[in-house]
Amino acid sequence: MLNLTPRLKIIADSIQGFDTVADIGADHAYLLINLTEKGRIKSAVATDVNSGPVEISGERIREHGLENKIEVRQGNGLEVINQGEAEVIVIAGMGGILICDILDKSVEVAESAKLLILQPMRDSEKVRKWLLEHGFDIIDEELVKDQDRIYEVIWAKPNGEAIEAKGLLFIGDKLIEKKHPLLAEFINRKTNELEKVMAALKDIDSDNCRERAEECRVMLTYYREVADWVR
User: Fold this and answer.
1) Residue 68: HSE in the Cβ half-sphere, 13 Å Cα cutoff
2) E-assigned strands of 133-204?
3) Burial of 193 (0-12, 13-18, 19+ CB in 10 A)
């Protein structure tokens, strides 16, 4: 049985009661192989925009004798997935801007799924904003520590009612509500990063640097306020 990293395991453990999954940018298809070997899903599609990962995914799938259950496709994002083909769509291990771009180009495919599982490596606030403004409910969020990094995972489902995304979305409401045990450490890492950026910008006199410093100041204030709340 193929073992998963903590980052992928938390995603796999959340896929319950679904038959079909599409993994976009499939990371050698480890997630889909694990789910299929455990009998948790009936069929799956692994995709990647580049030929190298597609070939490696195909090799891994054949090694596990699952080529009749997991199909590999090369293509850009969700453009190689048909509407209604996947009950669950996973987009993990990419930047938030790229995730939003993938969803933007195939909104109908995303809306036809019952569940989206998104794991942005950065710019998670942009993913939350996109989901809310395109009629998706954020039903849960988690933090998971994998080696020396803390990852954010977002679960969302379509509801057809787009709303204006108000306020700062640097941390998901679900994480704050549950006072997630990793949240304090996550915030501490973010504040340390911002303080370093602000220190580097301090002596540079340009409009761009002043604008960036102000953005960092707003984010820093936000993280500190959340940190006080979750203590």
Assistant:
1) 1
2) 136-146, 149-158
3) middle
Category of 29 on φ-ψ map: left (φ > 0), alpha (ψ -120 to 50) or beta: left
CA distance 46 to 17: 19
What is the distance in angstroms between the CA of the first residue and the CA of the last residue of the chain? 40
The dihedral formed by the CA atoms of 54, 55, 56 and 61, expressed in degrees to the nearest 10: 90
Helix (H, G, I), strand (E, B) or coil at 20: strand
CB 78 within 8 Å of CB 106: yes
pLDDT per position as a tens digit, 70-93 = 999 999 999 999 999 999 999 999
Q: What is the pLDDT of residues 37-46, one digit of tens each?
A: 999 999 999 9
Specify the 3-state DSSP secondary structure of 28.
helix
Q: How crowded is the C-beta side of 156, counted as CA atoms within 13 Å?
A: 28
